[in-house]
Specification:
Elements (H helix, E strand, L loop, with lengths): L2 H4 L3 H13 L3 E5 L10 E2 L6 E2 L3 E5 L2 E8 L5 H17 L3 E6 L4 H10 L8 E2 L1
Parallel strand pairs: 5-6, 6-7
Antiparallel strand pairs: 1-4, 2-3, 4-5
């Protein structure tokens, strides 16, 4: 999710965190009140910061979660997803997309556009 849209979608972010807690994830970090903020990465040559929506641990492995909701800035979202996917593969971590009803088609199209069609979104 792009930073501009985070305040609008707090409820879905909270719902996603509760789902992850119920499925056994621990040490959850999210850009939300009551949780520790995940580490941000700064793009070289730009002022833009890339912060994963949710970072959690399960069985000693780190997972990066990205919330996929229809966005007015799909190009920025694609850049963020590619970066997080590359980062997770470099460090033997996992990268997952979380989406909800009404946003499945948008998510699938975005994943196809950036050649991550092997990723199966978590549908809540």
């Amino acid at each position: 999710m792009v930073n501009v849209e985070k305040s609008e979608n707090q409820a879905f972010l909270e719902k996603s965190i509760h789902h992850l807690e119920a499925t056994g994830f621990e040490d959850i970090k999210a850009d939300m009140e009551g949780y520790e903020t995940p580490k941000s990465y700064i793009r070289k040559g730009h002022d833009a910061k890339i912060t994963p929506d949710i970072v959690a641990l399960k069985n000693g492995r780190k997972y990066y979660f990205e919330i996929s909701l229809k966005s007015s800035k799909p190009r920025l979202l694609k850049t963020k997803w590619l970066f997080l996917d590359t980062l997770s593969r470099m460090n033997s971590n996992r990268f997952r997309i979380i989406t909800t009803r009404g946003h499945y088609k948008f998510t699938d199209t975005m994943l196809e556009d950036i050649n991550l069609s092997n990723k199966e979104p978590i549908k809540i």
